[in-house]
Amino acid sequence: xxxxxxxxxxxxxxxxxxxxxxxxxxxxxxxxxxxxxxxxxxxxxxxxxxxxxxxxxxxxxxxxxxxxxxxxxxxxxxxxxx
Length: 82
Hints:
82 residues
């Protein structure tokens, strides 16, 4: 029996070229959800993708942006509220 294993990697600039829908699909499949924060009518999720982080902003449950997030800003989310 042969098992095929593929690892999909993209860098920051490649990820930034994806459409919003493409970014969300990629994060769901390959990203690691690290933090979730609620801010009034918005929710912010932070994902790790290999060697960079992505911030997803949702409004009423729908993603309105998904952008690369600077690593030093992670300190704002460090209260283990996954």
